[in-house]
Amino acid sequence: MMYRSVFPRDVLAELDRLQREMQQAFHISPSIRGIARGGFPAMNVGGTPQAVEIYAFAPGIDPASLDVQIEKGVLTIAGERQLEQPGGEATVHIDERFAGRFRRVVTLPDDVDPNAVEAKYVDGVLRISIGRRESAQPRRITIE
Amino acid sequence: MSDNSSVKKQAAREEAALLPPVDVIEDSAGITLYADLPGVAKERLALHVEADTLTIEGEIALDMPQSMVASHTEVSLPRYRRVFTLSKELDATRVSAEFKSGVLKLSIPKAEHAQPRKIDVKLL
């Protein structure tokens, strides 16, 4: 496992992870990139007729260090999360938060316009809005 | 008519919530707790210390367009909650908190009487 579960003590998340690992073991994953659940950052994806909205839950990261790229219809979010290191005399009782490098990839729909991208980082959530092409927007057809 | 107000109240308090991942580190001065609460604004974070129970709660507020239809959801609930039991040697009255980019840092110092002391071992 490359990534730790986002909410590791959540029983449902653990079941999800188990299901994913089973699917990977039997090569029946429906998507070529597997089911990306349980990675860091956690992601929510949605769409409106005008844009595709991607929310990446990546708390405690310097937005300047994030690498967001769109290439051939694939969005990649990569970066590194460095946590404060405890001093020598300290004892770590619970260690659940993700640390280290991460990379997540999302396949975008065909109708997005890679030149109409906006990215914001607010309260630890990276929001990426990618506009859809003008020609792909729904149009009302008037009947004469 | 049956009165189910107490049941309702209970249900409201037990609303489903995500369990935020935390790191807990202890040194001689006290305990430092870090919690990941992405999507929570400062005003929507609530910290309570009651007797020896520490509760961390936060509401996720994302700026979402009205017409948005979700197609993939990993963060499926709009709130976080996690409860910890503090031990006696911690001074819950002097807890300090910092919250930045979705990361909460809580420092809970140890009470004066619990600060480390070297114990001399006498040979008899």
Q: Would you mind describing this structure in some detail?
A:
Chain A starts with 10 loop residues before the first helix and ends in a 12-residue tail after the last strand. The mean pLDDT of chain A is 81. Chain A has 2 domains: 1-38, no CATH class; 40-135, Immunoglobulin-like (Sandwich). Chain A is elongated, with a radius of gyration of 19 Å. Chain A is built from 1 helix and 8 strands; from the N terminus they run H-E-E-E-E-E-E-E-E. A 4-stranded antiparallel sheet of chain A has the order 1-2-8-7, with no helix packed on it. A 3-stranded antiparallel sheet of chain A has the order 3-4-6, with no helix packed on it. The longest helix of chain A is centred in the N-terminal third of the chain and has 15 residues, at 11-25. The relative contact order of chain A is 0.20. Chain A is mostly beta strands and 144 residues long. In chain A, strand 3 and strand 4 (74-81) form a beta hairpin. With 124 residues, chain B is mainly beta. Chain B has a single domain (18-64, 74-114), classed as Immunoglobulin-like (Sandwich), CATH 2.60.40. The longest helix of chain B has 9 residues, at 5-13. The termini of chain B are far apart. Residues 1-12 of chain B have low confidence and may be disordered. Classes of the chains: A mainly beta (144), B mainly beta (124). The interface between A and B is large, with 44 and 36 residues. Strand 5 (91-95) of chain A pairs antiparallel with strand 1 of chain B.
CATH topology descriptor of chain B: Immunoglobulin-like
Strand content of chain B: over 45%
Order of neighbouring strands in the sheet with most strands of chain B: 1-2-8-7
The string of secondary-structure elements of chain A, in order, is HEEEEEEEE
- Assembly annotation: heterodimer
